[in-house]
Every structure is written in C-alpha cells, then in structure tokens.
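Internal ticket - ligand job 207, adenosine-5'-diphosphate:
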Amino acid sequence: MSNVGKSTNILWHESSIQKLDRQQLLQQKGCVIWVTGLSGSGKSTLACALSRSLHSRGKLTYILDGDNVRHGLNKDLSFGAEDRSENIRRIGEVAKLFADAGIICITSLISPYQKDRDACRELLPKGDFIEVFLNVPLHVCEARDPKGLYKLARAGKIKGFTGVDDPYEPPCNSEIVLQQKGSDCASPVDMAETVISYLEENGYLGA
Ligand SMILES: Nc1ncnc2c1ncn2[C@@H]1O[C@H](COP(=O)(O)OS(=O)(=O)O)[C@@H](OP(=O)(O)O)[C@H]1O
Ligand SMILES: Nc1ncnc2c1ncn2[C@@H]1O[C@H](COP(=O)(O)OP(=O)(O)O)[C@@H](O)[C@H]1O
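stdout (structure tokens):
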C-alpha cells in the first residue's frame, strides 16, 4: 500500500498488456514532443503539420494544445503563475499516459517556466521527452498577432500576457531548436520534417 499526495492506502495495479505490447501493435514508440514558445510563435501550426505528416506515414499521434485543454480539463485554471504551473503539470501527466499508450503525443502550450517543463521531462523514461523550442522573437510573434491578443495586452486590456508583462524563460536544454534564418522562417511543413528526422534517427518510428 502507498500514500501519494492526498491519496492514502492505494495500490498500483499492473496490466498483462504493457507499453511494449502496444508499441509492437502500433509499430512506433510512444513519446512526448513538447513544443514550447511564445504566443504566436507557431506551436499549434507546427503541431498540426507534424500530426498530419506522421498520420500520412501511418503513425498514431495526438495533440494536447494548451488553448484546447483549457476548454475542458483545465478550464478551472487562470494565467497566474501558480495556475500556469498546474496547467503544465496536468498536461505533462496526460501526455505521459498517451506516451504509455504507445502514441506520439504532441503538446503545444506556452509552458513559460523551465522548472515546470523539466518536471514534465522527469515524468518520462530517458529520451522519450523531446522538447522543441520555437525560438521566434517577440517582435515577430507580435507582428503576426493572429488573435489580436498582443494588441490588447499592449493596451493594458489583458494583464499578465506572456512576453509583454509576464515572463517566458527560454529553454536551455531542448532537443530541437527551430529558429529563423535571417529574415526567413522555415515553413511549418519543413519544421515538421526536422522533427520527423529526429524521431527517425532516434528509433521512434518503428517498434
Ligand atoms: N495572459 C496570457 N498569456 C498568454 N496567453 C494567453 C493569456 N491569456 C490568454 N492567452 C491565450 O491562451 C493561450 C496560452 O495557453 P497555454 O495553456 O498554452 O499557456 S501556459 O502554458 O499556461 O502559459 C495562448 O494561445 P497561443 O497563442 O496558442 O499560445 C493565448 O491565446
Ligand atoms: N512557420 C511559420 N512561418 C510563418 N508563419 C507561421 C508559421 N507558423 C505559424 N505561422 C503563423 O503564425 C501565427 C501563429 O501561429 P500559431 O500556430 O497559432 O501559434 P501559437 O500556437 O504558438 O500561438 C498564425 O497566423 C500562423 O499562420
């Protein structure tokens, strides 16, 4: 029997079907591709391009998008520091379950704090947490502003907006960094290809 957090007298139950069996069935390795970056850096676009490209190769993926998860599981959370941490923690735990199911789980949330991203990394077996940093400068994200949120934040109508009056801690240990070369930003499809090459080289696209 164990006590975990506020749960007392609980017992882990093993199943006779394990991660390796599921991976064999799916002919892939479960993992988490953790896409982090400012609002407007292209996280959701990359996640969708990656999911489509892997799907067309017969690989099972699932996207956990910060915006979307906040419509359900995380709708009780604000954008205050504590709630952002809880948002990241919960998405990390759910992503871990998807990876255990043998699925290539793509998360796309700002996840501004290094310690929270690292805590999610620690939840997974070594190598299975693949951090992708969309290193797009603030001025580029702000010029894109597809939802008009930067404009509202600059006008003081949204408080605590990441990059404006709330912090973003750039990752220092990402497996993949995607950034502009000169004034050009690689296309989402090309960025997805970079991630897929990493998955191939590291054996995630076979069982
Ligand atoms: N204050 C503030 N700061 C940043 N972002 C804000 C804020 N308020 C609303 N939004 C919208 O919420 C999206 C970010 O949600 P996340 O769950 O990814 O954020 S976090 O990881 O908890 O920081 C983010 O979506 P993306 O633009 O896709 O990143 C915004 O559309
Ligand atoms: N690689 C890219 N090059 C140029 N524009 C992009 C790229 N990726 C995304 N965009 C554009 O940037 C904006 C923000 O993209 P989005 O995926 O919504 O970002 P995020 O999820 O990080 O907020 C959208 O208008 C999108 O079309």
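Auto-summary: The first helix runs from residue 19 to 26. Residues 39-40, 43-44, 66-67, 70, 79, 84, 87-88, 109-112, 147, 149, 158, 160-162, 166 surround PPS (ligand 1) (CB under 6 Å).
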